[in-house]
User: Fold this.
Amino acid sequence: MGTKVEKLKINFKTLEEFKKFKEYGLQELSMLEDLEANMVDNDIESPFYGIYFGDKLVARMSLYQIDAKYDRYFYPPQNYLELWKLEVLPDYQGRGYGRMLVEFAKSFGLPIKTNPRVQSRDFWEKMGFTSVDYDMERDRGENPLVWYPEGVKAQ
Amino acid sequence: MGTKVEKLKINFKTLEEFKKFKEYGLQELSMLEDLEANMVDNDIESPFYGIYFGDKLVARMSLYQIDAKYDRYFYPPQNYLELWKLEVLPDYQGRGYGRMLVEFAKSFGLPIKTNPRVQSRDFWEKMGFTSVDYDMERDRGENPLVWYPEGVKAQ
Assistant:
């Protein structure tokens, strides 16, 4: 098979593939606008990683490094990754693609924070993520889950 | 009828009512834990407002004031309200309860930011909310909508 996680280039082809995912939103529309305004491909820094099955994008996530000075989740305070829009297309679920993406994110060795959809909590627990102590000022109704690499604790 | 918006007291009765809402999550569980630990009612500062129909809670929202120094949305930078978990129970939708809650939030005269579920965009537009210019570092995959009182602009 040779299935692998790759960084997605942000071009018209990728953005067209993104339309198949439920969590298509302002982020994708904004990228599309940028592309249209510049009339150039492949030059936008991409936070997206994905898995292709043949030439079809079947899974994706967004991953963005947050600077230590904004860290309100981990101790000692440090750079960490925020992960969002982890999604596998319905016909391709149950094949370990979600797990592959999360393992890829973990491979950077940084703590990870995500705000999962309520229905996906079991998956995240299997991946070693745990709830934080809710802080209204910081979390504002979200249900953040975090993953601690060795030596990292809650703030 | 005398339907009105009221600040919800956080006690066991209210938390039991919250279980009927879809967006029950870490915030509510954390409040429940606090109540159980202290064995006292009504003493937790509540960010929740709601509407009762008879003695049944049928609509709610969370509203929290963010300090101007954290304002990355409005110009001039100022205190603003973050609104989340706006929700009307299915049997009570279409009666203007959602609108009543939003009008209540607007009555403070502060700008408002919310991260709506995708399906509710039409409602928010009717309420005068607009999209922001997406900023990945700030918005991280969210689709924030904002409401500007007179004299306030985007940052």
